[in-house]
Amino acid sequence: MKGEQLPARIGKYEVLSRLGAGGMAEVYLARLPGIAGFSKTVVVKRLLPDLARDQRFVQLFVEEAKLAAQVQHKNVVQIFELGSEGPDASVFIAMEYVMGVDLKSLLVHASRAGVRIPPWLSVHAVCEVLEALAFAHGLSDDHGRPRQIVHCDVSPENVFLARHGEVKLGDFGVARDATRPADPFLDRLKGKVAYMAPELVGGGSPTHATDVYAAAVVLWECLAQRRLFKGDDPDVLAAKIQRGVDMPPSHYRADVSPELDLILMQALSLDPGDRPASAREMQVLLRNEVARVQPQLDLEQVRRQLDVIMGSAEVRVADGVATDPDPLGPKAPRSGAAHPEAVALVPVPSRSSDFEVLISDVLSDLSSRAITPTDLPSELASMHLGPWPDTPLARALPTLEDVALPAALLDEHPLHGDPPFDDVSA
């Protein structure tokens, strides 16, 4: 927070800035120095001092690091080290530093800027998430026993789109692992209600099918550019989820194909048995569909489209160090701590080609409640995103798809009126 004295070091890492804090951890941008001018930028997540005295939270933090370190995949935020500053000090995790933007922030900005995210980009991002899930779901232990890992927290804020087009899934803080001894404390911790499957909010256990359902919710929201289940009461959200989804994204987007609607509505079925049998199966269905409309998709196309959506920007740092001369919308009074689900953002050069945002895999708020709502707080209005620069890139790639919306949808379309990812009403 503003005026806070930064620790000089955490373990062997030199602290550069404080990125934010949640209910369980504080997050720093740091550097690992070495000989001959070697330097590696990392993100360090440190357990809050008060929680460092509670062995339940220490163990939870340790288990997150151990599990995430086993999921070594290009589509997963990588863990470098689990360390401690001393016998009585907080434990910390050093992890991959990613240049880019989280999917939630991308949706917020696109909504506020009146920009439609192309369906192919949304499908590509979720296919990469499904690739990460398929890998994690298929892991075995050293004896060949399936680990039955379930992420349990697939949501837009845990999906990161790197500057050069890669997509990464982060935050294994509440993941389940069948080879790990049962832990009643961990079993009480859940992911975000709005991305839970019907059987999960009904008291069932997390399974691979619940991860598939969560990925489907993320894709629905990306395509429709609005919340699927919204509200600030977990019980109300649970009731909505258990009633099922009856509105395909094409109701809000004329450029969503019937085939894509069908795949998505199947994945959102109330009955897990009616969904795609695995993350891999859903990924294959989606990839076949996106190949039909975007047959030559590559990372360069993804990178350019991200540049188009985000443009040049000046973004406020989570602790309020940077200035914000033209804030977007009203702000709630700042509490002095970043929202636990918020992504950490830093000032960005004004040229589109230099678009760069620091993001960190911030732990979700772990409170005494078993489940917590996920609607975006007004604090995310601290992000200021400037207008498009007059660059060849900006001129070459349109910010809107060529397909026009039917006039009948204009009044209710998420690009008109209040941005849906700012709307926290039920």
Key features of this structure:
single chain; 426 residues; alpha+beta; Transferase(Phosphotransferase), domain 1; four-stranded antiparallel sheet; 11 helices; 13% strand; globular
Describe the structure.
With 426 residues, this protein is α+β, with helices and mostly antiparallel strands. The protein has a domain at 100-308 and 397-421: Transferase(Phosphotransferase), domain 1. The protein is built from eleven helices and ten strands. A six-stranded antiparallel beta sheet has the order 1-2-3-4-6-5, covered by helices on one side. The protein is globular and about 55 Å long. The protein starts with 8 loop residues before the first strand and ends in a 30-residue tail after the last helix. The model is unreliable at 312-419 (pLDDT under 50).
List the helices and strands and how they pair.
Blueprint: E1 9-10, E2 13-21, E3 25-33, E4 39-47, H1 55-70, E5 79-84, E6 91-96, E7 98-102, H2 103-113, H3 119-137, E8 159-162, E9 167-169, H4 184-187, H5 198-201, H6 208-224, H7 234-243, H8 258-267, H9 279-293, H10 299-310, E10 358-359, H11 392-396
